[in-house]
Structures are given as C-alpha cells and as structure tokens.
C-alpha cells in the first residue's frame, strides 16, 4: 500500500510521455510528407539564427510590450521547469523536496521560481486582457474564430493554473515554510491557509503537487493540438529558415531543366531518361496540396502560433482584402492534419478525399491579393515564410491550370511577344533617350 | 526639346572594341512608362555629369521576368532570364546598375543560379559611390530644408536590406527627412509588387497605394521620394486621388539628385 502513490505517479508519467512521443512521431511523419528541400550550407549561420531568434527572442522584442511580456513567460516556463525535475524524483522515490539538502542554494532557486511565477501570472493576465478586453485587432480577425480563439485563451488559463498551483503548493508546505528560505512569495500566501489544521494543509499541498505535475503532463500533450507547439518548433524552424535575401525566390529546378532543353539545339526531346533517373513521374509545377509543398513549409505551418503579426502588416489585409498570411499558415496546418488523419485511418496510405489545400482551404482570391512585399516574412518572430506558399500555389494556378487573372495573362503574353509587360514594340526600347 | 543625352549601347561599344565600366539596366518601366522615362533620363544626366563610362543594352534588353515569376509563371521567368543572361554574358558584363529595385533584386539574387553572375547595384547605391569618390559634389541649394519623406521600395528595403543609402543621398541634398510611421523594415508596400501593377486589386475597402499615400501625407511633406518606378506610379496615383498633386511632388531619388545638381 505504501508504494501506491509512487506507482500511480509512474503510470501518469509514463502515459504522459508515451502519448507525447506518439504525437511527436505523427508530427514528424506529417512534416515529412513535404517535398525535399536543400537546407544544407552555412550551418554556423543557422545555429546563430536559432540562438538569436528562438532562444534570444530577438524578433519578439521588435514589438516591445508583447515582446517583454513574452520573454517573462518564456523564461518563467523554462526556469520553473527545473522544479519539475525535483517533482519527478520525489514522485518516483516518494521523497519530499529531495533537493532541499542544498540549503541556501535551494532557497535561492525556489525563491527565484516564486518571483518568476508571480511575474508570469502578471504577464498572463496582461496577455489575456490584450486578447479579451483591449481586443487587439489581430486577435479578432476572421480566421481567429472558434478553436483558434479558444486555444489562445486555454493556454493562458493553463499557465495561470499551473503557476498558481506551484505557489499554493509552496504556501501549504509546512516543512518548506518552516525552512523559511526561498518562500519569498509563498510566505504571504501561507496566512490565507493559517486557520486550517495540519492534516488539511497536507491534503491541499499534496493536491496542488499532484495537479501541478498532472497539469504539466496534460499540457505537454495539449501541444500537438495547439498553436502552443511553437515552444518546441520555434527552434528547428528558425534553424531551417531561409538564409538568402527575402527578395530571392527559388528557381524551380524542374523548369530549369525544361528551359535548358528548349534552349539547347543539341538536346533530344525524345531521349530516354538517363540511367538512374528514377523520377519518371513528371514533376508537378507549384503546389495545390500540402504534399506539393516542401517540408520546411510544413514545419512552418506547425510552428505558427497565430500571433498575427504577419497579418497586421500585410498590405492586402490592411486594405480589407481576404488575404491573411496567418490564415495561409493555419490552413496549411489544418489540411496537413486532415491528410495525416486520413493516412492514420487508411493503414498508412493516403486515400483521395476529393479535397486539397487550394480552393477547399485557400481561395484564389487570397492568393492573387499578395503583393509579395515580404512584410509577413519580416514580421514573423519565428521566421515563418507564408509568401513562399502563396508563390508555390500561384505557380500551380499559372503553370498547371493556366488560371491567372486575365490581366496577368495579357501581361505575360506581352512579355512573351515583345519582352515587356506592356504591348510596346521591342524596337522602341531606347526611345526615351531622345524624348 | 530636351538636351541631348549621351547613351551608348553595348553594341556600339563592342563595335568600337570598348568595354564600359558599367551596364545601365534600364528595365521595362524605365524604357516605356512615360513617368519612369523621366527617372531614366535623370539618372543618365547624373552619369553623364560624372563622366561615367556606361552603356545600355537598348533594343537588346528584355523584361527580367520579375513580374512573370511573381505572378507564378516560373517558365516564362526562366526563359526571360536565360535569354537576358545570354546577352549579358556575350558582352562580358561584370557590373550592372539599375534604377528598378525589381530588376535589381532579380538580377542580383535570381540570375546567378541560372548562369548570370554580376555585381548588381541599385542606382542609389551607385550615385552614393559617385559622391563618395568625389566624381560629383553634393549640393544642397535646391532642396535645403525641404520636407521630404522617403517611401522604401519593398524590393530594395525588406527584400535586400538597403535602407540607409537612399536616405544618405537625401541628406546629401540637404532635405529635412521626415519618416513615416511605417518605414524601413515595417514599410508598407505601395501596392504594385507581385504583378499587382498589372491587374485590378481584389475586393477590399481601400487600395493599397491610397493607404500608403495617407501614411505619407501624415508627415506633411513637400516631396515623397522613392527609388522605384512602380512605387512612383502608385504614389503619384495616390496623390492625385487625394487631390494633392499641386502641393506635393513624387520624385525618384535620381531626380532629386539631378535637380540638386542643376541637371
């Protein structure tokens, strides 16, 4: 009987971790549905980007209020989680505050956790107010209805409860309070419980302890279903983000090969593919569904935390057009999840569901509203590139479906005929000299 | 009506057995658009004054393919790119200057992979060099203290990180530079990029160029300066929409420098 709490704890811990591992596996499987993309080269720059942007939050603080609040919550999250190590050891071995032998060091650690917990609570309340009372515009755009809106609040409630449990746990821990070292905040909460008997206090302390660790395990498994996944994926995402100038759009290799063939007078268009050339399926130009995108773009979609900084700087969105770069990312993730579930339900094989990312999620009207200005790319605090998805989908529309707006077709015909976007004679190109 | 510009073509120079210091890539807007042609001429005046040994491709130049690529027509883009690269490489071009940030971005960033490797400069960068090397002297007499706001072209600024050079030039002309709330990294697009220039905008409550013009008007400027022929068109249209064309001029940096040099 004595070991029942230890066993229950182990079961909870293992269940939590196993479920999480399963979700991570699914996550990786889904991301790998994307096309290969070359992410080699300049590893040191990649590490530097990760250190600066994800770890160092350098792009978060470009908006100082949200940036600083976020850093507090982020630091609180990381640092207070050191405490989880002690909770796990205590839980498994039935010890109580196993690190308390560290004396003043322990006091200092827990003391700083308590201060951080209070700062986190304040920041979370501020975040909540920004979303629900001040109603900052970017949190109330049309794509932020239903789950995305609730998700944002659930995360805040979760964190609020976890931090409160941590403080209550400390406040009701008589042993810890009598140590009188590190209880910088909880000593002021303790009087609230002063009328209670030692037994009741112990029950409250144990309940807070259990709820705290169970809450963390539940939260861990909530990540996969939530925008909160960014706390993990921000790191690989900033690592694999594009290193070339924002303005540089990739040149499609499949097109290069065809253009080379056309320009080369010696090329034999009917030649059999070279030995070892196994891709006999003709390349599809551009993207109409998630599997046509590359895996970094899919990683981008899972990393997006729906903060909406992109959308709030998008010229199309600011002028009332339907395009929202955030929605592009959310749609990509939603479709990818749908494809993943389809694969799970069909024994690992995707069964055509008659749907795709184009039209069923992202409309043409959205795609054609983009000015390719890179405002969204520049604004993203974790280096997501919505523009690359927009461009790949335009490529599909134009090259696979010839479905560009009429005016653009005219523009392209002009380029083909006379080397300019307007129907002017090529021979008049130098007329400006004498006008 | 206007004074003669010295504009040699690569073909002329090659026939004479000469290679110029730079190739001036005029771009389609700079060649055909009436407003942009004035920018082209202003820049050439500066080149002439500084005795820059340059040439243009003239009728051998063709669209870079920027608009086609951004509209999604990668095929047309690469056809244009490969054709242009063939011409440029045949003339053994090493250094290109252009007054169009779109051409600048495309040739600088997207051509190398397709076999076109050149040193590419935006005209503001080149003019800055001319000042730095003393080939032209700054003069503040035309624009001393004039209130000017600078609209960052996306393909110069965010796309390639060139924010300071155009501002440096404006300061050299002695203007009082006033920044819009959205500038540099957070600058708002004029609405022309990504082939939007060539189509009607999608349904919304406002045109992008009007919103950007409102940004500019808030700084109460005499001049809206920019460094892109497309931005110029969009801002000029915006100023007309706001019926401010008699009070506010939309000028390219090259025009401001040329005017300040009495050219």
TrEMBL record, chain A:
<dbReference type="GO" id="GO:0005886">
    <property type="term" value="C:plasma membrane"/>
</dbReference>
<dbReference type="InterPro" id="IPR017900">
    <property type="entry name" value="4Fe4S_Fe_S_CS"/>
</dbReference>
<keyword id="KW-0408">Iron</keyword>
<feature type="transmembrane region" description="Helical">
    <location>
        <begin position="68"/>
        <end position="93"/>
    </location>
</feature>
<feature type="domain" description="4Fe-4S ferredoxin-type">
    <location>
        <begin position="360"/>
        <end position="390"/>
    </location>
</feature>
<feature type="domain" description="4Fe-4S ferredoxin-type">
    <location>
        <begin position="295"/>
        <end position="326"/>
    </location>
</feature>
<keyword id="KW-0812">Transmembrane</keyword>
<feature type="transmembrane region" description="Helical">
    <location>
        <begin position="105"/>
        <end position="129"/>
    </location>
</feature>
<feature type="transmembrane region" description="Helical">
    <location>
        <begin position="154"/>
        <end position="172"/>
    </location>
</feature>
<keyword id="KW-0479">Metal-binding</keyword>
<feature type="transmembrane region" description="Helical">
    <location>
        <begin position="208"/>
        <end position="225"/>
    </location>
</feature>
<keyword id="KW-0560">Oxidoreductase</keyword>
<dbReference type="Pfam" id="PF13187">
    <property type="entry name" value="Fer4_9"/>
</dbReference>
<dbReference type="InterPro" id="IPR036197">
    <property type="entry name" value="NarG-like_sf"/>
</dbReference>
<dbReference type="GO" id="GO:0046872">
    <property type="term" value="F:metal ion binding"/>
</dbReference>
<keyword id="KW-0472">Membrane</keyword>
<dbReference type="InterPro" id="IPR051460">
    <property type="entry name" value="HdrC_iron-sulfur_subunit"/>
</dbReference>
<dbReference type="InterPro" id="IPR017896">
    <property type="entry name" value="4Fe4S_Fe-S-bd"/>
</dbReference>
<dbReference type="GO" id="GO:0051539">
    <property type="term" value="F:4 iron, 4 sulfur cluster binding"/>
</dbReference>
<feature type="transmembrane region" description="Helical">
    <location>
        <begin position="184"/>
        <end position="201"/>
    </location>
</feature>
<protein>
    <submittedName>
        <fullName>(Fe-S)-binding protein</fullName>
    </submittedName>
</protein>
<keyword id="KW-0411">Iron-sulfur</keyword>
From TrEMBL, chain B:
<dbReference type="GO" id="GO:0005886">
    <property type="term" value="C:plasma membrane"/>
</dbReference>
<feature type="domain" description="Cysteine-rich">
    <location>
        <begin position="148"/>
        <end position="235"/>
    </location>
</feature>
<keyword id="KW-0004">4Fe-4S</keyword>
<keyword id="KW-0560">Oxidoreductase</keyword>
<dbReference type="GO" id="GO:0046872">
    <property type="term" value="F:metal ion binding"/>
</dbReference>
<dbReference type="Pfam" id="PF02754">
    <property type="entry name" value="CCG"/>
</dbReference>
<dbReference type="GO" id="GO:0051539">
    <property type="term" value="F:4 iron, 4 sulfur cluster binding"/>
</dbReference>
<keyword id="KW-0408">Iron</keyword>
<dbReference type="GO" id="GO:0016491">
    <property type="term" value="F:oxidoreductase activity"/>
</dbReference>
<protein>
    <submittedName>
        <fullName>(Fe-S)-binding protein</fullName>
    </submittedName>
</protein>
<feature type="domain" description="Cysteine-rich">
    <location>
        <begin position="32"/>
        <end position="107"/>
    </location>
</feature>
<dbReference type="InterPro" id="IPR004017">
    <property type="entry name" value="Cys_rich_dom"/>
</dbReference>
<keyword id="KW-0411">Iron-sulfur</keyword>
<dbReference type="InterPro" id="IPR051460">
    <property type="entry name" value="HdrC_iron-sulfur_subunit"/>
</dbReference>
<keyword id="KW-0479">Metal-binding</keyword>
């Amino acid at each position: 009987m004595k070991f029942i709490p230890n066993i229950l704890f182990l079961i909870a811990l293992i269940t939590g971790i196993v479920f999480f591992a399963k979700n991570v596996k699914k996550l990786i499987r889904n991301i790998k549905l994307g096309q290969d993309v070359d992410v080699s080269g300049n590893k040191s720059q990649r590490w530097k980007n990760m250190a600066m942007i994800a770890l160092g939050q350098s792009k978060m603080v470009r908006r100082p209020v949200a940036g600083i609040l976020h850093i507090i919550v982020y630091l609180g999250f990381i640092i207070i989680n050191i405490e989880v190590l002690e909770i796990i050891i205590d839980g498994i071995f039935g010890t109580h505050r196993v690190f308390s032998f560290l004396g003043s060091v322990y006091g200092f650690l827990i003391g700083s956790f308590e201060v951080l917990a209070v700062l986190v609570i304040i920041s979370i309340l501020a975040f909540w107010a920004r979303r629900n009372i001040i109603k900052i515009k970017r949190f109330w755009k049309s794509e932020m209805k239903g789950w995305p809106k609730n998700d944002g609040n659930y995360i805040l409630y979760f964190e609020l409860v976890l931090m409160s449990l941590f403080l209550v746990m400390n406040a009701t821990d008589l042993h810890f309070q009598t140590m009188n070292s590190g209880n910088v905040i909880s000593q002021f909460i303790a009087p609230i419980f002063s009328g209670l008997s030692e037994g009741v206090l112990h029950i409250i302390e144990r309940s807070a302890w259990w709820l705290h660790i169970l809450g963390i395990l539940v939260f861990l498994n909530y990540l996969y279903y939530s925008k909160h996944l960014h706390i993990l994926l921000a790191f690989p995402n900033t690592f694999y983000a594009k290193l070339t100038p924002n303005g540089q759009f990739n040149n499609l290799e499949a097109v290069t090969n065809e253009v080379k063939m056309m320009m080369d007078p010696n090329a034999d268009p009917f030649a059999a593919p070279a030995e070892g050339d196994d891709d006999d399926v003709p390349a599809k130009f551009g993207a109409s569904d998630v599997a046509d995108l590359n895996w970094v773009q899919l990683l981008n979609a899972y990393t997006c935390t729906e903060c909406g900084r992109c959308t709030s700087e998008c010229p199309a969105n600011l002028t009332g057009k339907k395009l929202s770069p955030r929605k592009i990312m959310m749609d990509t993730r939603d479709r990818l999840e749908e494809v993943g579930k389809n694969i799970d339900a069909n024994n690992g094989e995707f069964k055509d569901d008659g749907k795709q990312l184009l039209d069923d999620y992202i409309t043409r009207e959205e795609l054609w509203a983009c000015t390719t200005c890179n405002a969204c790319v520049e604004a993203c605090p974790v280096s997501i590139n919505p523009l690359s998805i927009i461009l790949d989908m335009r490529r599909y529309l134009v090259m696979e479906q010839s479905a560009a707006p009429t005016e653009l077709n005219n523009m392209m015909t002009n380029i083909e005929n006379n080397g300019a976007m307007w129907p002017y004679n090529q021979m008049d190109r130098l007329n400006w000299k004498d006008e | 009506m206007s004074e003669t510009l010295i504009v040699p073509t690569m073909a002329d120079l090659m026939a004479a057995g000469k290679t110029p210091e730079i190739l001036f890539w005029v771009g389609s807007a700079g060649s055909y658009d009436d407003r942009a042609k004035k920018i082209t001429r202003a820049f050439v005046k500066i080149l002439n004054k500084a005795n820059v040994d340059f040439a243009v491709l003239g009728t051998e130049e063709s669209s870079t393919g920027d608009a086609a690529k951004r509209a999604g027509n990668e095929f047309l883009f690469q056809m244009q790119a490969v054709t242009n690269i063939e011409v440029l490489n045949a003339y053994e071009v090493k250094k290109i200057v252009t007054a169009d940030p779109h051409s600048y971005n495309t040739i600088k960033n997207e051509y190398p992979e397709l076999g076109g490797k050149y040193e590419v400069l935006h005209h503001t960068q080149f003019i800055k060099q001319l000042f730095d090397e003393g080939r032209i002297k700054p003069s503040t007499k035309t624009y001393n203290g004039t209130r000017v706001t600078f609209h960052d072209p996306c393909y110069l600024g965010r796309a390639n990180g060139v924010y300071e050079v155009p501002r440096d030039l404006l300061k050299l002309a002695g203007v009082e530079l006033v920044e819009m709330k959205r500038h540099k990294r957070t600058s708002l697009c004029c609405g022309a990029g990504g082939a939007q220039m060539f189509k009607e905008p999608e349904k919304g409550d406002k045109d992008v160029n009007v919103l950007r013009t409102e940004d500019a008007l808030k700084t109460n400027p005499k001049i809206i300066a920019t460094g892109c022929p497309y931005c110029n068109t969009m801002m000029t249209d915006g100023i007309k929409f706001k019926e401010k064309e008699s009070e506010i001029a939309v000028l390219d940096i090259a025009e401001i420098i040329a005017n300040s040099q009495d050219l």
